[in-house]
Amino acid sequence: MRKIFVEKGKIKGKLAYIDGKDFHHLIHVLRYKVGDKIVVSDTEEEYLGRVEKIEKDRVILFLEEKMKGNAESPLEVFLFQGILKADKMDLIVQKCTEIGVRRIIPFVSEFSVVDIKRANIDKKIERWKKISEEACKQSGRSAIPEIFSPVSFEEAIEKVRECDLAIIPYEKEEKKRLKEVLRDVEKAKKIGIFIGPEGGFSQREIEKAINNGIVPVTLGPRILRAETAAIAVSAIVMYQLGDMG
Nearest 5°: phi and psi at 213? Predict the structure, then answer.
């Protein structure tokens, strides 16, 4: 069954009010009629809704029942991602949303190729939010990940302070293996993952990360592309410490 996300103020008692682009999509694209049903989520609770009334610019849903269960993981994964070129960020946002990542924080580092001043970044953020929302609907998630505006590498490090553990895969790290580091923090509730841009991290950035408590790890003998690493590490962390598998 299809799902729609609404703001908390759009649910009042037993009714939910759908307007704007969601109204257009429901009525003019999906051709919903009175009596049709849809799942409604305000990111905390989910309800089974029935189209009660179709007005000129909004749909009124009657909420028949609260849905049981919640598709959100108890583990909060924060992905700090060096901005990548072309559609690579789109892929990361889509797949990491499906996996269960809670926040995506793009950042600019020394080896970043993308010039955010020329990249029309506001439109890209809106695009990423739309991709994330669609991925939530497809995967059955209850909450849409928070996608931040790009920050500097230094600002990203500041944001990681609330995590129980933060890791940074680094091709020159040889001793600390990812699975061994995760094995030592089985009760962690918030995990930060730092993935670099196409050119990776500079030695200075790695040293700064280490000085701020971020743990460098090796992913093994093969070097992964940035987009592959983001998806793979998010899945491994969610499997080891979250509810995947």
Answer: 85, 5
- The 3-state DSSP class for residue 197 equals coil
pTM: 0.85
Strands (E), the chain: 3-5, 11-12, 15-19, 37-41, 46-54, 58-66, 76-82, 103-108, 146-147, 151-152, 165-169, 190-195, 215-217
The CA distances from residue 178 to 40, 198, 235, in Å, are 38, 21, 12
Calculate the CA dihedral of residues 186, 192, 193, 199 and round it to 10 degrees.
Answer: -150
Looking up tokens 């990249």, which residue turns up?
Answer: 119
Work out the number of other CB atoms within 10 angstroms of the CB of residue 176.
13
179's tokens: 């699975």
Q: What is the pLDDT of residues 192-203, one digit of tens each?
A: 999 999 989 999
pLDDT above 70 for 219: yes
State the pLDDT at residue 89: 94
Yes or no: say if 62 and 50 are a contact pair by the CB < 8 Å rule: yes
Contact 87, 201 (CB under 8 A): no
Q: With residue 167 as reference, give the H or E element that holds it.
A: strand 165-169
Cα–Cα distance, 40 to 140 (Å, whole number): 11
Amino acid 203 reads Q
3-class secondary-structure state, position 100: coil
Q: What is the reported pLDDT for 112?
A: 85
Q: Give the C-alpha separation, 68 to 122, whole Å.
A: 36
**Two tokens, residue 224:** 């992964």
